[in-house]
Every structure is written in C-alpha cells, then in structure tokens.
Specification:
- Helix content is about 50%, strand content about 10%.
- It is globular and about 50 Å long.
- The mean pLDDT is about 90.
Length: about 160
C-alpha cells in the first residue's frame, strides 16, 4: 500500500508508530569533516520498540525478508544481552503506549517456537554464513537466542 504526500509516493509502513514510543535522544557531536549545530539532537527508536516493530511485521514479509529480520533480531539480542533486565524493566512503559491488539500480536511472536527447523531460521543462518562472518551462528543458536532473549525482554514477570 502506498500514499502520495507532496508529490512523493511512499510505501506505508505497518507498525512504524511503535518506533516513536519513548525514543532515545542522542546529542550530536562534531566529527572530522562534518559540521553539526551545537544543539543538534536526534531521536532514535529505543531497542524495545525496534524489536517490537521487527516482530510485529515479521509474518507479513516475504520469507527471504523474514530470514533477514530474524538475523537482525538475533544480532540485536546478542548486543543487548547484558541489558535484558533493564530492558524488561522498561517494557511496561512501552507496552502501556501500544494499542492492546499490537501487544497481543507481539506476545504471539515472542512466544513463537523459533526452532532450528524453521525455514526462516535456516535462512537467517545461511545469510550469516554467506556474509563472511568469522563465526556465523547455527540455526540452533539463532533460535535459542531469539527464544530466550525475547522472552526475557518482553515478559511481564521476568523480574
């Protein structure tokens, strides 16, 4: 589905609004060859909302895109692993801002089995293997990281 705004045609993105919930603000600093105004700040999606949006759109995407998204989810969870408890503590505030139906759909995705025999997981492992990673994760590892990490972040009783 597309929409035209000001002469530009763009694809409507499902669940993009979730990325606007409780954004993180980053202050921009000067970098070599790059001028930044003194008061420049940028809003970015917080990791909970990023993961939520990836999960909410997952089943609506083509299989090859689902595999990429699962690999992004896996990689994000690996980076965030030391902060799962903090993210879980922040989850109720994000959940409160989301429509109830989105929360219900999200919980279905969080509770998905993420098994190594899932074609999306196999595809994610293949993407990781063929992208030149020194130690690409196996389908079993991708499934385990997704199952455990998502439940720890999005659980209402993880603490």
């Amino acid at each position: 589905m597309t929409e035209q705004v000001g002469g530009v045609v763009a694809q409507k993105l499902r669940y993009v609004d979730v990325l606007l919930i409780n954004p993180w603000q980053l202050e921009m600093t000067q970098a070599k060859g790059f001028k930044v105004p003194d008061d420049a700040t940028v809003n970015i999606a917080n990791p909970i909302c990023y993961l939520a949006q990836k999960l909410l759109v997952l089943s609506r995407r083509p299989l090859d895109k689902q595999a990429k998204d699962i690999l992004y989810i896996h990689d994000t969870l690996n980076i965030l692993a030391p902060s799962f408890d903090k993210l879980n503590a922040a989850w109720p505030a994000v959940k409160q801002e989301m429509p109830h139906l989105w929360v219900t759909d999200l919980q279905k995705q969080v509770n998905a089995p993420f098994t190594a025999s899932d074609l999306r997981i196999i595809g994610a492992a293949e993407i990781a293997r063929t992208s030149g990673r020194p130690e690409p994760p196996s389908p079993e590892r991708i499934g385990e990281v997704c199952r455990v990490g998502l439940k720890q972040i999005f659980s209402d009783d993880a603490n």
